């Protein structure tokens, strides 16, 4: 029993919470180090100053404090991250979003296209990690901005916000939802089902979407500049070539003014047909089988074409050149593939030679997709260009073959440029696994943690990703931050801190109806969610919410739902939610931009919740 003034352990827990939050906000140390430090302090403190229960046992043993690392909510979050990464690796989300953008077309108008894309992002966010969804949709939004000649800064903060809206609608939509649910289980309160707050979440998401579409763009400044360039690697053009085959989208079509409608974002520079060559303006030219098209395109445009046809930009050897391949030929056509950039080094043995003469693909087991020379753009096959120091080659190959180029004296591997290509052949498997996980969890066939963990394991077993890629999807920040937040939540509960704070809040609101108490509690949590992480807010305020509900005679579920939605309302700061940080760079946003757009949105969401939730729950 905790006395009216609180116990020594309780006040030390409060001090540690405030101290940890201050370090998080000031960013004097990494989040991982700060989180582990908090856990270590808790372990040491409660070893020497234990909290003794009525039966004489220590309620905060090391096992209890460290159980956050094995918490089902954390395991579920990590499993969903792995599954989401599998969806990204197969290109399933990227292709789907690009298809939707293509279907909208220019005739649809900016508002309709933006609405469709944001609704799709919101729906996907209800079932996938919001961070992955935003990563996929950033270039899609940038492409939309270019299409309508509008600054992408008008769209990227709205993208982050609607991803959060989608996460409010299902139990697995956000890690904070799972943490609230885990805290309820810890307190022996009936946990949420998969769709328990979907109705109220959908109402808030729909209202928020309307606000985002019609108000937020008017509040955001125009941060145009280099934003559009970031979508395609700075707009740098490569010279590339492709051979028209029976699967080519340009077969039988004409190039209007040097542009094929079936080859978006690529400029036709020259065509070879046997010994004949066609030059601009290509009047009367129609693509036939065997034609070699020389095009200028950005890296992103080339990679997008590889997603549809993996061999699209694999140049054929020049006529008369014979292969010098060994028995290990064509590794760039099989297994896991990456794209990277290499620069021809000064004094390189490649200087003055063509790719055909060098036999680059057979010596390195990497094929050259494009050549970039800053001083000029050639009209010739890339296999016929004599290389010079400083030329940049866009190459494709297996990770081990690309890594081997680090020790080459002829080229310099630009490490930052290495990027995995989507494993399109596994797209169907990834989609089936994902739907299976969502279906079994939603229907209650399996607990969410079991379904998600089995789904992540299935992604590895069927070859969607290898174990190394699966472990790379696990963010150490998430592991340590959630574990420390859960440890603080347990400490707050066991020392009586949650009941102490709830009692004082209820006393301060004495005589006020449960509906108004719920509204003010939501506002308090929403404001604090913008100063600390949503995960920490969810864990710390759930026990307080349950104690408030018990003291005023309201259902604990109602105040727990308030924590779910309020903790996700971290719109006014880039620090509160990771999706805000993701769009900050590409959008060239300043800290004040989030406050300008997010503060009115928080007030709006508070009003919507305050009007709808009490009526829905009958308070």
Question: How large is the count of helical segments?
Answer: 26
Helix content: 40-55%
Strands in their spatial order, largest beta sheet = 3-2-4-1-6-7-5-8
Helix-strand makeup class: alpha+beta
Assembly type of the chains comes to single chain
Number of strands: 8
Q: How far apart are the termini?
A: 31 Å
List the uncertain runs.
225-234, 321-328
The general outline is elongated
The residue-averaged pLDDT reads 81
Major beta sheet summary? 8 strands, antiparallel
CA-atom Rg in angstroms: 28 Å
Proportion of strand residues: 5-15%
Quick structural summary:
Helix content is 53%, strand content 9%. With 619 residues, it is of the alpha+beta class.
Write the layout of secondary structure elements.
Elements: H1 8-26, H2 31-48, H3 62-66, H4 72-89, H5 92-104, H6 110-125, H7 130-147, H8 156-167, H9 175-186, H10 198-214, H11 216-219, H12 227-230, E1 237-243, E2 266-273, E3 276-278, E4 292-298, H13 299-308, E5 338-344, H14 355-358, H15 360-364, E6 367-372, E7 392-397, H16 399-404, E8 411-420, H17 427-442, H18 448-461, H19 467-472, H20 476-494, H21 497-508, H22 514-529, H23 534-552, H24 556-567, H25 578-584, H26 591-617
Helix pairs in contact: 1-2, 2-20, 4-9, 4-17, 4-18, 5-6, 5-7, 6-7, 6-8, 7-8, 7-25, 8-10, 8-25, 9-23, 9-24, 10-26, 17-18, 20-23, 21-23, 22-23, 22-24, 22-26, 23-24
